[in-house]
Each structure stands twice: as structure tokens, then as C-alpha cells.
Design brief:
This protein has 236 residues and is an alpha/beta fold. It has 13 helices and seven strands. Strand 6, helix 12 and strand 7 form a beta-alpha-beta unit.
């Protein structure tokens, strides 16, 4: 169909007198700003970028302790010692002392660490090519509730997929963890843009709700496909 046969899109500013209508450069800038609804993408790591399963740790610890895995799973929790460890308030040896007591097992720190790191299964399927694609359009950042022992492990094993991020904010380093408001404020300030210009992806609903309350655009996701759908829904 030729130019004459194409329907012309009418915009609200077309109704203004000609001398008050914006020039083409201004219209182009408006269109770009409307299409670009974000300055940065922020990702959780566990179950968004890196697949994790605590059952792997429970199985390893049960094997070392010669006990039923179900007992370990029942006794383990994200208790206050766990949270303090993730905020960097106690080191791994202190956490393992508390964990050993909670689990009621007598296994060594080395055995606990072996199980502790066994939770990392691999990359979430399809996430690396997706990150590589969107990184060409927007800067990527990560924010993880994690601890120094885990960071030493995943930063090496998953160095390839993690290279897509400009910066990774780790709770044990910044001394703050999701879903605390102070944690999001810290990361937003570090990224250097308005919270509403950051799109956040996490698998935990509590973290997503807290991020939204802090002004971020936030999505609960469980797969790379869900991340891709969220990005597409924003026109990014």
C-alpha cells in the first residue's frame, strides 16, 4: 500500500494550533521516553539466575551424620542466626556452630560447608542468553541475600553468567537484606536512579511486595521465560 493509502495516526497534540505543536525532535524525544520505562534491571540470584535446592544440603548433611534426611529438613530454618549470617553480623564458623546445634548433629565445619555449597545446582535454564540480550539495551545489576561462604562459591562457579551484571549487591557485604526497606534504599542509591526507573525480579513474593512498596517496578518470576515475558510487557 502506498503512502497515500496509509492511515495517519492522530495524536492529541495534532489538535493544537500549528504554532503550538511540538517539533519533530521533541515528539521523538517524547516517544523515546515513553518507550523507555526503565534505567536499569535488578535481579535476585537464587532461583532467578542460579538454580538452588536446599534438599541437596539436607541430603549431604544427613549422609555425614548417618541420620534421616527428613529430620534435617524439619529442623533447618531461616532462623535469626541464618539472617545474621546473611547480614554479615556473624562469620561462617559462628553460623555453623549455631546450625550444628539447631540440626542436632555432630559433623565438622568442612562437612557442613560441603552441604552448604551443594545447594547450587546450576544456571537457571535460558537465563544467560536472555541476560546477554537485555544487557545490550539496559545496565543489569543483581541483589542477593547471601553470605560470604556462598559468595566465594557462586562467584567462581557461575562467573560466566554473572559477568552480565555491572554490580552485584550481596546482603552480607552491605549489611542489609531483603525485604528490609533499608536494603532496597541502599541498592537504589548505589545504582543512582529513581526507584520507579528500576525493574526488579525476584522469586519470593515477600521481596517483590517490599520492592513495590519502595517504588520499584517488581515482578515475581520462577523461570527465564517469566523474566522475558515481564520484560516484553514493559516494551523493553
Amino acid at each position: 500500500m502506498g503512502e497515500a493509502g496509509r492511515a495517519r495516526t492522530t495524536h492529541s497534540y495534532d489538535l493544537l494550533p500549528k504554532d503550538l505543536r511540538p517539533d519533530s525532535q521533541t515528539v521523538g524525544r517524547w516517544s523515546f521516553e515513553m518507550a523507555s520505562c526503565a534505567d536499569a534491571l535488578l535481579f535476585d540470584l537464587g532461583r532467578v539466575v542460579i538454580d538452588i535446592d536446599f534438599n541437596m544440603a539436607f541430603a549431604r548433611w544427613a549422609e555425614y551424620a548417618c541420620c534421616d534426611q527428613a529430620i534435617i529438613a524439619q529442623r533447618f530454618s531461616h532462623d535469626e542466626a541464618y539472617k545474621r549470617h546473611e547480614r554479615g553480623e556473624i562469620d561462617v564458623d559462628q553460623y555453623f556452630a549455631a546450625l550444628r546445634s539447631t540440626l542436632g548433629v555432630e559433623i565438622s565445619n568442612a562437612q557442613l560447608l560441603d552441604g552448604w555449597n551443594a545447594i547450587h545446582i546450576g544456571e537457571m535454564p535460558g537465563i544467560s542468553p536472555l541476560l546477554a540480550k537485555v544487557a545490550r539495551r539496559l545496565p543489569l545489576y543483581a541483589f542477593s541475600n547471601s553470605n560470604r561462604a556462598h559468595e566465594l562459591y557462586w562467584s567462581t562457579r557461575f562467573a560466566g553468567v554473572l559477568s552480565h551484571f555491572r554490580q552485584i549487591y550481596v546482603s552480607s557485604t552491605i549489611g542489609l537484606r531483603k525485604p528490609d526497606v533499608e536494603a532496597y534504599n541502599h541498592v537504589v542509591t548505589a545504582i543512582g536512579t529513581l526507584p520507579e526507573r528500576i525493574v526488579f525480579f525476584d522469586d519470593v513474593s515477600e521481596n517483590v511486595d517490599a520492592a513495590r512498596a519502595c517504588g520499584l517496578q517488581a515482578f515475581q518470576v520462577k523461570s527465564a521465560a517469566e523474566v522475558a515475558n515481564a520484560i516484553d510487557s514493559l516494551g523493553l
